[in-house]
Every structure is written in structure tokens, then in C-alpha cells.
């Protein structure tokens, strides 16, 4: 039954990895601006529409 | 799409000025040009995200010439290396997703820009560009030409990038990591499934839990120990004392428990407690990044001025480099940064921001100009008398009384309560200990620690942060931006409201004009309009706009006597427009009001009176407020409007005029000495002292992004009539907190009843603690949202 030591160590390590990822994300400034990225990610699709549109206009 | 609104900026289109381009109507050429730029570069998507998102580009000729100066530019840059320059520009107009989109596509409009990134909350765009292909001036001019003029002031000069404090996030992360893992590892013992396995691995689980609790105990909760220690030293007894005591006792007792194999300890509750309380802190920490509450004259001042060299050439120099004796060139709408003497013939200076006077002041050659005024005439030249640091305005600002006092520390409602809570808790703990010690020593220690653990005022401490944090957010949506949550508590205590006049209860935007005297015929109006056409005096311009459109007739003779009025001849009629002196017509106290007198063919006709326009809903607001508050109007202007104000405002309103900035401050101080809690609402530099002195200083602003003196809150001018609502809401917020205190004390009583009788098991603590937290948080959130919906 000593497998429980192994399993629990793995689970703790996994949790610690997540903690590390979280801290890294905070450090890189991801939590400083929580609005702009949410808008920015919607833009890429709109850009593709652009050429057709200007054709229509002209 | 509404045809009446400009496709670009959304303003009403005046039919006569309408410009139709590409089947869309625009209000002016400026807006049309922006549209043209966008459509040429395939950027018309801009108009898809938001309806009419743009702003009309302003005329900025020559305004940014100082960006040719390398040394100024390098002060503004955030990062500088061979091929990469990075600059962060503050753009007040950023307000919607279209703005983000266009600003992040700048590289399509200007070669040399690599990337541009918007921070919406801070209203900043961070542009990376290559100095070989473009320069900062070009970028700024480009931004201005598409209606996104950046705001560059002396504040940007040498601005250091502030280190962001993210420690709270780290602490929460660590606390959550510990809390989650400990919770999972604690479960087996709670449910005691399969005694055999538990017995076998108990030690391993318990010591693992102990190890996991260490980071939360030593790192995440550290702030509470520091704060508790400080408050013991200053004998303030704040809420952090019972919290720190609870955490420490929990940790020691749990360690003892597992060391001597008494039980599993309270590590899970301890970490949960730390986690929830840090979360409360985060929630209260709502900040408005794009606003600054600690502004000083620097954000109002330009970064550079135009200096005229001895050989007549112009050069942009930094404001700090201006020396006595220099000659400066000040353009229309520019700010006078230093004291000096006017060299040009004459000009008009708007001092409304500094002194509160509503009308621009006329200055003639040789007159002294004070820093802080806005130049409204044509380009002028001035000679410098004092450098920036020695100018009147700067001196005034560095005056001690104008600084917000830091030692004015208010006791928060939680701290007030904890003054009673902490001693009561300690007494209860010792009494129970004394009782049990005669029965059973082991139980006595058990009970003593259990009381301190269960009474740890987690829910109590969370009440205020969550309520106030939520209220802060709600009133932020309603466009009153407060510096922090404690301002709400102060607002609830206010009993006297002091208003500034110019710019606060009046708007600077429009003045209504009324006519007094013999009625004018259409023919006479025609004469007036044509006479006024030639004049550039601000009052003439306003009157010109006010008089309905007339036929254009040429004047045969036109003369403008500066500071007095205009004289013109049209079709044999002699028209005189101007001050009473000029017309030699002395009526009643003429200088009290701003009047323009009219005389046609030597017959006095009457005068146009320029009234300050009061903000909408002013009468209603004062009417409502007068029931519960003492009201004062404190003005730096003359008493010309006393009669109107007396008529408009409730009888018990105190009206005080001709107040200098220092006098305003003294007035507030005097009220406070009488035991009043004063809310000051003002707008300009002349109110800065009063705003700092008052219990709550709120500055009102037409454009919250640009400038306001140091204060506790910034109110968008359009929400002026809602001041009553905000005051009432703050009171309701405090009521919510009191109710919630009652609720959390109830939980404490339940928990204590377990503790006193010696029955507090880890599982009871683990249930009560999160349960109370969740109830409190949902209760205060629901209540504060309900109160927000209530009408005044």
C-alpha cells in the first residue's frame, strides 16, 4: 500500500506546478489588464471581412 | 443609422454644414478626413464595433513642435535602443472596442510602427516603433489627426515606471494552493472511512498537512501579524488583532495536537480563513487606473514651451529650463506655465481654473501674467519673471495647507467595532479558562484555544470589504469614482455640503444670454450681427452666435477699442457695442454682471446680459438635500449672482462670495471646528485647499480623464443631479454593514457555544467557517445591489 505515498506526492507536485504557472502568469502582467485582451481576441475575424467590404463600397 | 448624427463622431449634424461623403453624412471636414484616412487604409471596420465611435480631430498646429527636441522625447520614452523605441501615451478619448481596434492597427497607418498595444483601463497605448522610419512627433500627429490626441503634460516628464505591487495575488495563490490540498488531505479523517488505513497513514497525512500549512501561515498571513503588531503598539485595537491571534492560536494548537497525537488540528480552517480574508482585500482593492486622485499642478502644465531666441528663431524647450528673462511664445488655448509680463499688445486670459472667476480677464502690454491661466487671444509673447518652481501657482501648491493631510486617519467602522469585540473576546476566553481549570486542566486549554479559534472574526472582517467594494463598483458605474472604500464611510457621516460656484453648480460650457431694454427690430439685429462679425472678443463671438442669422452687409467703418467695445457704421447707422463706460451710459451697478450694451445712432437701446448657466437639476438637488444637510455655496467669484441664487436655492442655504483659496480652506476648517462633517464639491485649483481640508472632497469634472485637483473622489459632471442619491446610498451601505455585523456575530455565538462547552471538533470549525463567509458575502452583495436600485 505504499503506493499511496507515490500518488499523494504526484498530486502535490501537480498542484505545485499549477501554483507555479499561476505565479508566472501574475508576474508577466496577465492580471494587470483584465479587459483589453477579452476585446482583442474578437478582432482577428473582423479583419478578414475587410477586403470584401471595401470592394462593395467602391 | 440616424441621418441627423455624424457618422464619425455622433454629434448632431447642422444642416448647413453637412458634408456628404461616401453616402454618409459628417458634421465637419475634420470628421470626414478621419473617415477618409480609415477608408483609404481599409480600416472602416472601426465603425462596425460601435456606432459613431470617433472624436473630431482638434486643430493642433504647432502644438507638438517640442517633440522635435531630442532631449524631451527621450524623457518621454519608456525604452530606447538602436532600432526600437517604446512610448506609452495616455489618450483620454479611449472608450470603446473600436478605439482598441484602431489603436492596435496603427501600424497600417504609419510605417515604422511595429506594434501598438492598448491598456483599456489605463486608457494608454504603448507604441513600439523604429526611429529610422518614423518619430514620436509623427506618431502623435497621426493620433491627433484621427481624433485620438494624446495628453502629454509635465507629469510625463521623467515619469518612472511604477513597480506594480502584485504581492496580494501571490499571497492568494499560495493560500489557495495550501487550502485546497489540505482540505483534500483532511477528508479521510473527517469521514473516518476504514479505521485501519487511517490509523496506518494518520501520521503521514497529518505531517504533510502541517508542511503544507507553513507557506500560508508564514507568507500569506504575514500582513495580518504586522498590522496587529502595529495596532498594539499604537493602542488602536483594530480588527487584525483577533484575526492574527486566531491564526496564531490555531497554528500552535494544531501543531501541538498532531505532535502529541491528540487529533488532526485545524489547519484546513486556518488556511481557508487566510484565503477568504485575502480575497476580501482583493475585492476592496478596486482602483480606477485611468484616474489619478493625487494630481498636482504637473499634470495640468505643458511639458514644453516655445522660446524665442535672441535672433528671432523659435525653439521648444522644457518648462523646467525656462529662466528669468526668457521670451516665450504662447499660442491660443495654451497654458501660461510661469509668471511673466505680457509683451504683445493685448490678450485675454481665462483664470477660471485658478481663481474661480467666470469671465476671461483682459491683459494689456506690460501687465503681469500669472501661471495657470489659459491664453484665449491670438499668439502672444511674454517675458518670464519667475521660473516654474518660483511661480505663484507652484508656490501656492507647495503650500502645506494644500496638501492632503496624511495624519487625518479615520477609524473605520470595523475598527470601531473591534475596540469592543477584542476585549470582550479575551475576557470570555479567560473566564471560560478559569472555569474549566478547576474541573479539568486539559479541557481548560482546549476551551481557551477553541474560543480564540472560533471567534476569529473572519465573517466580521469580511463584511466591510465586500460591502464597500461592491458599493464602490456600483457607484463607479454611475460615474462617481472614489479613491478608496473608506471614502464611503466618510460620505455616510456627512452633514454639511459645501459647493463651489463657478464650474461646479454652473457649467463652463454655455452661458445663457438675455436681453434687457427696448426691444430690437429685425433691422437693428442685422446691424448688430454685422458689427459683431469683425470682432474677436469672446463676448462678441458669443453674442454673434446668439443672434439669429442675418444677411451679410459690409461695414463702412469699423473700429475696435480694446477693453471697451466696438464702433461701426453700416448704411449710415452708427452702431456702438461695448461696456457702459464706452457708451457713457451709467446704469445701476453695472460691473456686477457681465453686460454688453448697445447703442444705435446715439440712442441707448439696452444690454445683453451673460448669465452663468446653472447645471441641470440644481434646484431639485438643493431642495432635496436641504431637508437633511446644511448647504453652503462658497464662491471665488463676485456676488453678482447672489440674487438669482437666493431665488433659486432653498432659504437656509448659506451663500459666501469673494473667497480666495486660503479663505475657502479656512471656512471649511471653521465648520469642522463646529463639529460638522463636511463634504466639499469643487472643481478648480482654487478649491484644492478646501477639497483637501474637508472630510470628503469630491471634484466635479466635465472630462474625468484630464484634470482635477487632489481629492477623494471624481464625479462626472453629467451626474451632478445624482449627488443626493450617492449620499443616501452611502448611508444605506453602512446600514447593510451593520446588519451583516449582526449576522456574523450570530455565527460567532453559535461557534462559541460549541467552544465554551469544549465540543469544538475540527469538522465543526471546518463547516462553520466557510458557511458564515458565504452567507455574509451573499447577504451584503444582494443588499447593496437592492439599495442601488432604489430611487431617491
TrEMBL record, chain A:
Membrane-spanning ranges: 6-23
Record keywords, A-Z: Membrane, Transmembrane, Transmembrane helix
Species in which this protein is naturally found: Flavobacterium limnosediminis JC2902
Protein name, per record: Cytochrome cbb3 oxidase maturation protein CcoS
Organism classification: Bacteria, Pseudomonadati, Bacteroidota, Flavobacteriia, Flavobacteriales
UniProt cross-references to NCBIfam families, sorted A to Z: ccoS
UniProtKB/TrEMBL annotation, chain B:
Compartments where located: Cell membrane
Claim: Transmembrane is one of the keywords in the record: yes
GO biological process: copper ion homeostasis
Membrane protein topology class: Multi-pass membrane protein
GO annotations of cellular component type: plasma membrane
GO molecular function, one term: P-type divalent copper transporter activity
Keywords: Cell membrane, Ion transport, Magnesium, Membrane, Metal-binding, Phosphoprotein, Translocase, Transmembrane, Transmembrane helix, Transport
InterPro entries the record matches: ATPase-cat-bd (IPR021993), ATPase_P-typ_cyto_dom_N (IPR023299), ATPase_P-typ_P_site (IPR018303), ATPase_P-typ_TM_dom_sf (IPR023298), ATPase_P-typ_transduc_dom_A_sf (IPR008250), ATPase_P-type_domA (IPR059000), HAD-like_sf (IPR036412), HAD_sf (IPR023214)
Pfam families listed in its UniProt record: ATPase-cat_bd, E1-E2_ATPase, HMA, Hydrolase
PANTHER family listed in its UniProt record: ATP7, ISOFORM B, CATION-TRANSPORTING P-TYPE ATPASE-RELATED
Family: Belongs to the cation transport ATPase (P-type) (TC 3.A.3) family. Type IB subfamily.
Protein's name according to its UniProt entry: Cytochrome cbb3 oxidase maturation protein CcoI
Upper classification of the organism: Bacteria, Pseudomonadati, Bacteroidota, Flavobacteriia, Flavobacteriales
